[in-house]
Every structure is written in C-alpha cells, then in structure tokens.
Design a protein that fits this description.
By secondary structure, the chain is mainly alpha-helical. Helices cover about 75% and strands about 0% of the residues. The protein is built from four helices and no strands. Helix 1 runs parallel beside helix 3 and helix 3 runs antiparallel to helix 4. The longest helix is centred in the middle third of the chain and has 29 residues. The radius of gyration is 15 Å and the shape is elongated. The mean pLDDT is about 85.
C-alpha cells in the first residue's frame, strides 16, 4: 500500500512538471508550488488513518486517483489561467492547496463504500 501512495505522489508531481516549467519561465513559481498535490494527499491519508469514512481497497484507489487528478487539473488551471490575470501567484497556490484539502475531506466524508 505504501508503494501506491508513493506512486500517486510521484505521478502527481511529474504530471505538474510541464506547467511548473512554464510558470518558472514567467518567474511566477517557486519550488514549493510544484508540490501542490501533496497537502491534499496527506490530508486524505491522515483521515483514512484515523478511520474517517469508508475503509476499503477500492475506496483507496478510486479516491486517491480522483484526488491526484483533480489536483493536477487545478494546478494547470492555476498556472495557465489564474497566474496570468493575478499579480500574486503565491496566493493562487494557497487557494489551490486549500481546495485540494477541502476536497480530500469531502471525499473521505461522503464517498460511499465501494465493494472490493
């Protein structure tokens, strides 16, 4: 199971790399903005470890995959839409992180139990 977690984090960070390079060219990204996938992921893992929400292997794969893909999409929207119109890209990164954490909590609370 630890390998699945590691795979999802690496997949999320590597998928955000092209947008991060584009943002670095415009000098609007820091090294930390590449890790926007991680806080929502860690929040989800912490909630699962505490026993919040349904506990099954199907929920593990489906919820984490949805969370990582959603984080990637939000990061691309941040880089290619929000950062072009907003003078503070750091604030946009904070918004994306906050949204991914809220989505992680909502996924753990409202996702139905999926059969294994």
């Amino acid at each position: 199971m630890t390998l699945i977690f590691l795979f999802f984090v690496i997949f999320g960070v590597l998928s955000c790399l092209p947008a991060w390079f584009a943002s670095r060219r415009r000098q609007q990204a820091s090294g930390w903005s590449l890790l926007t996938v991680v806080p929502g992921f860690l929040c989800w893992v912490a909630l699962a470890g505490l026993g919040v929400g349904p506990q099954s292997l199907s929920n593990l794969v489906v919820e984490l995959f949805d969370l990582v893909l959603g984080s990637i999409v939000l990061y691309y929207l941040k880089v290619f839409l929000l950062d072009r119109f907003s003078p503070k890209p750091g604030r946009n990164t904070a918004y994306v992180v906050a949204i991914t954490v809220v989505v992680a909590v909502l996924l753990r609370l409202f996702m139905p139990l999926l059969p294994e």
